[in-house]
Each structure stands twice: as structure tokens, then as C-alpha cells.
Specification:
268 residues; mainly beta; Neuraminidase; 2 domains; eight-stranded mixed β-sheet; four-stranded antiparallel β-sheet; 1 helix; 22 strands; 8% helix
Length: 268
């Protein structure tokens, strides 16, 4: 077959492929993705017994969800000292995961039990439970909807009253799906997500699923105290934002430090 004719015959298929990618919110080239490194602004003690799964900041305190069956908990932590000032332990069959604060209630996920818990912010009293049909990893909210990850490249949007799934969006950097989305934090209209087993946080447009930024925290472990011995699972996980003072905090599972960092743009 003539090469020119063969190329012409391939054009309709290419057009269909491009159209399909566009319909899924995917683009052939990631446009406008910003890259960041970091500067440490401050550091604080962190409990090395805390297998950090969910983290948030509220009125001067950190609220933390920790994992591991038989060790999972909900905690209120003093930022400056790392002291746990309030704690509720989960029943031993549950593996604690993501944590969000919505309208005076703490919402905590569990990993494979498909069960979430709702607590009173002040007393940690259990107010209710809810279920979901996937794994529970990270959770945050945009002011009107809960946003949940399950370890895939999908973000789900939940009604905060009924916990019904209102919609979902796949997360892509160009045509590359970003899998293993874990702990989430909603900051200035975008979702910040730890990518499990990496030293990276991705910034996501929740309307489109497009990655708008990537934060490389690969050097952060070098600032942990000398002699820190991290296991394979003791990876970067935990993002908290102090909206009133625009402070960003990050830590890891069983890390002895929690860091306040400033993002520094990197030219690519």
C-alpha cells in the first residue's frame, strides 16, 4: 500500500483517540503544571508511635488519625510540643485512615472495613457511622462536599449529610493517571494529595482532575534527627493547612518531626 494512503487511512483513528482523551479530561501534554521544592520554616515534635493517616489543623491544634489495627486512634495534638491532649482509640478490628473536619464534626475513614465514623469535635463522642463501597484512604472537603480517595486515581465527592456519592473525577497529569492518592487537604480551591510510597504531593484541580502542581519533598527526610530509623512503610503522609495564617504542615508515618514548609517554585 502506498505510504501516503496508509497515513491518510490512519487519520480518522487518531482523531477518535484524541477526542476520547479530551472527553475523559486528559490532554496529550500537561500544560501549566508547576513544580515546587520547599524551605523549612519551622519544625515540631511528632509522636513516633503515630502511624499518620489523616491530619488537619484547627484553632491552634492538630487533629490526627492514626492507623494499624489495634493501634488506630483519633487524636488532638498540641502543635508546639507534639503532646497528645485528647485521644479516642478505635476498636481493634479497624485500621484508621483519613480525617476531615466539617461543620463541627470530625469525619474519620477506615481502610478496608468500608466504615466511617463521625465524632463531636470537642468531646470525641461518637455521633454516627456511615458506609462506602470502596477502600477508605484520604478525606477532605471543599466547603460543601466531602472529597475522598481510595488508593486509586479517582477522587469521589460525597454528600456530607447522607454520604451519598455525588460524582467523581479521575486524576491525570497529562495522559498519566496518578494512582495511590492518599491523604488529602483542600487548600485555596485545590486538593493537595500525598501519593503513597512516594516523596511527592500533587496539587489537583477538583473540577477537572488535572494535576496543576507537583511538590518534591524527597529531601525532607534528611532533616529528621540523626539516628532516625524509618521502616519501609514509614513514608511521607500527612498534610495540614492553617488557613488563618497560611501555614502548611507535613509529616510522615512514625516520623519524629512535623515540618512547617514554604513552597519554592522550580523552573523546568
Amino acid at each position: 500500500m502506498n505510504r501516503r494512503i496508509a497515513r491518510l487511512l490512519m487519520l480518522p483513528a487518531l482523531v477518535l483517540l484524541v477526542s476520547a482523551c479530551s472527553a475523559c479530561g486528559m490532554t496529550s501534554t500537561p500544560e501549566g503544571v508547576k513544580h515546587y521544592t520547599f524551605r523549612i520554616v519551622n519544625e515540631f515534635p511528632h509522636d513516633t508511635g503515630a502511624f499518620t493517616q489523616g491530619l488537619l489543623f484547627h484553632e491552634g491544634f492538630l487533629y490526627e488519625s492514626t492507623g494499624i489495627r489495634g493501634q488506630s486512634s483519633l487524636r488532638k495534638v498540641e502543635l508546639e510540643t507534639g503532646t497528645v491532649v485528647q485521644q479516642r482509640n478505635l476498636p481493634s478490628q479497624y485500621f484508621g485512615e483519613g480525617l476531615a473536619l466539617f461543620e463541627g464534626c470530625l469525619v474519620q475513614l477506615t481502610w478496608t472495613s468500608r466504615t466511617g465514623f463521625i465524632y463531636n469535635l470537642d468531646t470525641f463522642d461518637l455521633l454516627g457511622e456511615f458506609s462506602y463501597d470502596t477502600e477508605g484512604w484520604g478525606i477532605t472537603h471543599d466547603g460543601s462536599r466531602l472529597i475522598m480517595s481510595d488508593g486509586s486515581h479517582i477522587l469521589r465527592f460525597l454528600d456530607p449529610t447522607t454520604f451519598e456519592v455525588l460524582g467523581q473525577v479521575p486524576v491525570f497529569d497529562g495522559i498519566q493517571p496518578i494512582n495511590r492518592l492518599n491523604e488529602l487537604e483542600f487548600i485555596d480551591g485545590e486538593v493537595y494529595a500525598n501519593v503513597w510510597m512516594t516523596d511527592e504531593i500533587v496539587i489537583i484541580n477538583p473540577a477537572t482532575g488535572a494535576v496543576t502542581g507537583r511538590i518534591d519533598l524527597g529531601e525532607l527526610k534528611n532533616f529528621l534527627p540523626a539516628g532516625t530509623n524509618l521502616g519501609r512503610d514509614d513514608v511521607l503522609n500527612g498534610i495540614a493547612h492553617d488557613a488563618a495564617n497560611d501555614r502548611l504542615f507535613v509529616t510522615g508515618k512514625r516520623w519524629p518531626r512535623l515540618f512547617e514548609i514554604e513552597l519554592i517554585p522550580v523552573s523546568r
